[in-house]
Write a structure and sequence with these properties.
Layout: E1 2-6, H1 7-19, E2 24-33, E3 38-49, E4 61-63, E5 74-81, E6 96-101, E7 111-115, E8 118-124, E9 137-141, H2 143-146, H3 157-162, E10 164-168, H4 172-183, E11 188-192, H5 216-227, E12 232-236, H6 248-252, E13 256-259, H7 264-277, E14 281-286, E15 292-298, H8 306-315, H9 344-362, E16 377-381, E17 393-397
Parallel strand pairs: 1-3, 1-9, 5-6, 10-11, 10-13, 11-12, 13-14
Antiparallel strand pairs: 2-3, 2-5, 3-4, 6-8, 7-8, 14-15, 15-16, 16-17
Helix pairs in contact: 4-5, 4-9
The protein binds zinc ion.
Length: 442
């Protein structure tokens, strides 16, 4: 048997034991992985003096700051807290964890936690000392201290933990962006998507068959928590083209919006709302058959808006004749949702570039240092088509403000006099000429 237990659960148990003046016991709640003899403890409840009857009113209920992926917490064993040989807890065959103070001159073997100047040792009954690799024992999880150890220095982990990213669209691109941002330490998410996970999603999506039929919001939220259990996550089942007004409040509280929908109308809706809220955004798009894609960053007042970029791509970058791609990544021929061509690995390059842009924008790493991304658009080619000379090629562009931009009029901002309302933004779609990108809007 191997038990993982968060440090703050141990500290809470010690605090409660002090409150009851002596040896106390409690029920561990967590997730059992019986096939591997592992118990993941997420909290404890019913802390009471040893021998006291379980009258069911044990109000001492502590949950770890961790949010377990599975919200159903089963009783997973017992914990006994206190001094001496009495601190053995109930023993009816269920796993028992013992938490006892280490004498000042005692040997600090095994897992220990310092609480109020005293060192406490945590031991799984029947074992002593530190857990051995592959063997029985207890591991204390120091989430705050250890979770980001291997990315410290590469990104500003403290800053990212405070950042709030709204992700619109949780398909192949959006789910990867969400998980990768969580891995990089982003601490606050708002997820927006109206759909459930379907069978044709799973060959590319971060979520798999275990999540079939679940809302993408819940499924992706679980993936984020698996990576960053301290993350704060809000969700909204909203189709942004149907309810553009529903975006305003959610975007207003964000540091960045990652736009991962697969249609330009939806991106134009988000573009307008981001300009209105003065919030930066980064757009990811994948070409037909996932032969490539592009990532576009928009900072209100500093760069052209997404609508400007669309027009600029049409006017300037269309000079290249090598446009290919009959298939449409985002829609099937009947414009109905359905399986879309494109390998996960090919879409993944675009998702990861979008994530790198997002991290640079969140941490101020634009145009400064080795990791600078100082161009507005990154084009990525998986194949030697369109504007790409060879496979796996990136090209960058800086775009111009477009005076006939329906959304911003070439200002890169939304005028405070603009009273057209979010629902009118799509009126201007026809102002953009044919999009030359493979699978682009025409
Ligand atoms: Zn514009």
């Amino acid at each position: 048997m191997f038990v993982t237990i968060p440090r703050d659960v141990v500290a809470a148990a010690v605090d409660r034991a002090a409150a009851v003046d002596g040896v106390a016991t409690a029920t561990l709640v967590g997730t059992e992985r019986p096939e591997e003899s592992v118990i993941q403890v997420w909290g404890l409840r019913d802390l009471r003096p040893a021998g006291a009857p379980d009258d069911g009113d044990g109000s001492a209920d502590h949950r770890s700051a961790f949010t377990p992926p599975d919200a159903t917490l089963a009783a997973a064993g017992s914990v006994a807290v206190g001094d001496g040989p009495d601190a053995t807890g109930p023993s009816d065959g269920e796993p028992t964890v013992r938490i006892a103070p280490v004498p000042e001159d005692g040997e600090r073997t095994g897992e220990t936690v310092d609480v109020d100047g005293t060192t406490w040792r945590v031991v799984l009954d029947g074992t002593d000392g530190p857990p051995t690799e592959g063997g029985d024992g207890v591991a204390i999880v120091h989430a705050e201290r250890d979770a980001r150890k291997r990315i410290d220095g590469l990104v500003d982990t403290d800053a990212l933990a405070d950042r709030h990213v709204t992700i619109v669209g949780l398909g192949t691109v959006g789910s990867t962006v969400a998980v990768e941002l969580a891995k990089s330490g982003v601490g606050n998410f708002t997820l927006i998507d109206p759909d459930r996970l379907e069978i044709h999603n799973v060959v590319r999506h971060e979520c798999g068959v275990d999540d079939l039929g679940r809302s993408k919001l819940d499924a992706v939220a679980d993936r984020i928590r698996e990576t960053n259990p301290l993350a704060s996550i809000e969700t909204a089942a909203v189709d942004v083209t149907e309810r553009p007004g529903a975006l305003a409040d959610r975007i207003a509280g964000s540091d960045l919006v990652a736009v991962c929908t697969d249609t330009d109308p939806s991106k134009l809706v988000v573009n307008r709302e981001c300009l209105a809220a003065d919030v930066p955004a980064v757009y990811g798009g994948v070409y037909a058959g996932a032969m490539g894609g592009d990532v576009i960053r928009v900072v209100p007042g500093e760069t052209p808006c997404y609508d400007c970029v669309l027009g600029d791509i049409s006017d300037d970058m269309a000079r290249d004749e090598r446009v290919s791609g009959e298939a449409d990544y985002g829609r099937d021929p009947d414009d109905q949702p359905g399986p879309e061509p494109g390998l996960s690995v090919d879409v993944g390059f675009v998702s990861l570039i979008q994530t790198r842009y997002a991290l640079a924008m969140l941490s101020g790493g634009i145009g400064d240092g080795d990791r600078a991304l100082d161009r507005d658009v990154c084009f990525w080619g998986n194949e030697a088509e369109y504007i790409f000379d060879r496979p796996l090629q990136s090209r960058f562009a800086t775009v111009s403000y477009r005076e006939d931009c329906y959304t911003c009029g070439g200002t890169g901002t939304l005028s405070v006099d603009d009273e057209r309302g979010a629902e009118t933004v799509l009126d201007g779609v026809t102002a953009v000429d044919e999009d030359p990108r493979p699978g682009g809007r025409d």
